[in-house]
Design a protein that fits this description.
Elements (H helix, E strand, L loop, with lengths): L2 E2 L28 E7 L3 E7 L5 E2 L5 E2 L21 E3 L4 E5 L6 H19 L6 E8 L2 E3 L4 E4 L7 E3 L1 H9 L6 E5 H12 L8 E6 L3 E7 L2 E3 L31 H4 L1 H9 L17 H9 L3 H25 L3 E5 L7 H14 L9 E4 L6 H16 L1
Parallel strand pairs: 2-8, 8-12, 13-16, 16-17
Antiparallel strand pairs: 1-15, 2-3, 3-7, 4-5, 6-7, 9-10, 10-11, 13-14, 14-15
Helix pairs in contact: 1-2, 3-9, 5-6, 6-7, 7-8
Organism: Polarella glacialis (Dinoflagellate)
Protein name: Glucokinase
InterPro entries: ATPase_NBD, ROK, ROK_cs
Length: about 375
Amino acid sequence: MALDPMSPGKGQKRAAAGNDCSSIHGNTSRTGVFVGVDVGGTTISVGLVDEQGSLISGNNNSYNNSNNNNSNNNNNDSNNSNNNNNDKNAGVQWESLGDDHDPKQLAVRVRRLVDAALSEAGRVMGDVVGCGVCTPGLLDHERGIVRVAANLRGWKEVPLVDILSKEMGMERSRVVLEHDTNAALLAESWSGAAAGLRHVVLLTLGTGVGGAILSDGRLLRGSRGQAGEVGHAILVPGGRAHGSAGVDGILEAYASATAVAARAVQGLPASSSLREVKAPIECVDVFRHAAAGDEYAAGIVSDTAKYLAIGCINCCRFVDPEVILFSGGMAEAGEQLLEEVSKQFELHHWNIEAVRVKLCLAALGRHAGLIGAARAAQLAINRA
């Protein structure tokens, strides 16, 4: 499989024991900045990132990225209620994706958000060293093309890097495209929970189970850029159906937030406190009721943790990571999730060695995608 060169950023620290979510702060007085762009499920987010991986806030200071660690990575749109907003804490500009998905118009909107971020930070385009953009979907990373993206209507073979570099007035070599899950992992290994580590797996637990792999300090992409699709690994041949991939029994059919909610609805007993939930039952409801002592909900959480732990163990056998990070909606269960998965991990792990991989929560929350996109730009420029 192809490996994408990557090395830890200058001044990074190795993650300490436990879920160390501290970030590194640098002097941003007039140093170069990187633009990170996250085209998510329902929003477009833009931020300025310094050379150490910290967001630059409106007062031109580095912002503690770990303040976002209670939010979903990449697609945490539930807290966004108005268009064209500014995340005051982090200096992040965002607006709703809306119904107009025309690539050229999207590039215009991105430039507008970039200009707003620069203005707030007292910067100009001349301070921008590079720009990274992350999206979901199937990408041609090297050519800067979005081959297809389900959430971006009509996007097929879109030369996003060409379009965005023209709109930004930047050299094409200074604009980089990255997959959103890979970007989140780049961010976490730059200034997040895995800062300085060289062997890391990131699992995003949301609608599905996304994955990204860092091996010996490099992103593992594969021959077609599809390495790390851990959620589509078959755990139970002929098992539960999930999604439109046409394969049953895959990990995300058992360990995604969507799967948890679906299981809760199926066969819900009259004795379960989940019947008190007025809105459609969601993954967070199942974990909350399990913590409160509901046996039915606790059984679902335990079963989910078992399959997630087995998926993690399989990752260990394939790529031998130092740490496996959890992000996304299910990760909001925090220590409850870690405790359950760790318990199942111990039950199913081999007894050949005593050392266990560390399981912990991702640290950078909803801004991980754009921070990682900026990191991708930094790495590409450093290699040039």
